[in-house]
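Notes from hallway chat w/ T.B., transcribed later so I don't forget. T.B. wanted the structure written out for a chain they're using in a teaching module, and asked if we could keep both sequence and structure tokens in one place. Agreed to drop them here.
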Amino acid sequence: MNLSAGYPLWLIRDGIPFDYPKLERHARADVVVIGGGISGALMAYYLQHAGVDTMVVDGRTVGFGSTCASTSLLQYEIDTPLSRLQQMIGERNANRAYVLCADAIGKLSELAGKTGFSNFSGARSIYYAASTSHIPLLLEELDARKKAGLDLHWLDEQDLAKQFGINAPAAIISSLAAQTDAYGLTHALHQYNIARGVAVYDRTFITHTDTRRNGLVLTTREGYHIRCKKLVYATGYETVNLLDKKIVKLISTYAVAGEQSTASVFPVKDILLWSTATPYLYARTTADQRVIVGGRDEDYYSPGKRDALIMRKTRQLSDDIRKLVPGIEFRPEFSWAGTFGSTKDGLPFIGAYQPLPHCFFALGFGGNGITFSQVAAEIVTALIKGKKHNDAALFSFDRIA
């Protein structure tokens, strides 16, 4: 599946920072991770840290799937507001999902430090009402999050205009968030993992998986075999064809990065912005003084239909950010499209899937794919090691009929 198009900022700026070999021999490992993006890189980090002999294979060049298209906002808030999620899965489970995402931000920060990756910084998150009719939703959300022990505050229209130059009727501001470059972090994780014995191969497409009593045999497009005891799918939306259950709806999303130095006059510093609208608008700044704005989502039909909208979406998103932050001079420079998936409850799918023996899934669906991928890496590593994980049931495939 073609997961991205256009000119993603990170890919243009970073290029291909490291080369990874193509598998051209028979091989074996205790665990094979399919997918070399941010989810696979995090999965491999936790597996090698647990002492598991691990191999990563990717059918593309590393990071060329959804990872390079990510706008890399890290929030504990998920696509489903906490107050609504509590109604769907219960207060205890909903609160736990939010707390896990909050904890993931700190853990990702630690990983960035361990790998020597510097493009990772703390931020605050402003969740603003797209219209006055959304204020009751925000008040309900404020109450639910405070009861869950999360640190946040209310901002009215005057507060937003005076403190941040934002044109919106109200918002809640959370003190815990971060921003990074998922593409760069992925490569940093792979280099760290390789130095500790993980084998990473790209341009190595798996065409067939043969299940055996004690493991699996994977066949590459060139006919080489990889024998393993366990297999982890970290290929995100490309995994849906393997599953009998319809667990995700595919969405096309769009992003625009403004010219360099735009952020120097942007009144919102170290803030992640996102709205209550459906689909929601979101924005952030970057280390090289750009403003990124994204949203204007559409149902996914095909790469061609998605990509044909890039120019129109660029104009619309540019107008959106100028309206939200009046007076800023936003000139788009890089525009791109990506594909992501939404689930009914906004939560990822993590763990074993009964029809596929010896296989595990780390599917960080939704707008919080990076934090969910960190959560998935911890849970799947525990399960592979034969340990029970208290949060596994929250994200299991069994939660849907």
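Follow-up for T.B.: The domain at 4-69+183-247+346-399 is CATH 3.50.50.60 (FAD/NAD(P)-binding domain). Might be a good example for the class.
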